[in-house]
Amino acid sequence: MTIPGAKTAVEWLVSVAPDPDACRWEWERNPLGVALLPAGHRWDVLILPGELGRPTLDVLRRILDRPGPVLADFGAMPRSHAAMPRLGFFVPAGTASRWLGTGVRGAGRGSWIVAPYPGRATGGVRWLELPDGEGTLTDPGVLELAMHEAAACVLTHGGRKS
Fold it and tell me: pTM of the full predicted structure?
């Protein structure tokens, strides 16, 4: 559902950029098609290893009408792990500094993330869930429950869906 006057995904993302025009320029003219955006202002990003991130996203998609934005980072992974990118879940600002979770990295205030133009594929980073432009983020409590469910599934079924 689109709300009249709601920001587009691009407008929402560049609203945190120190220089929105430079951010748009990077997306339009940089051959990599990515821009650096500061975390910790409107959102933080919790980064899960692929072995847990992908099944967590599957759980979120089953229990929520729409999860918040999710990035997949295929960047600096060895070939043997090419099918398991790290996933970054956008959560409310301040979450990363309070998060206690083994193997989960947080990008909050003082951190920067690589963000591709919404809807455009790049070599190393792509959106698995696009920002909706309305500021929808994943609730950290719901994310934690989804992680527990995903971890149990991975342990029980070796990562196979039942």
Answer: 0.87
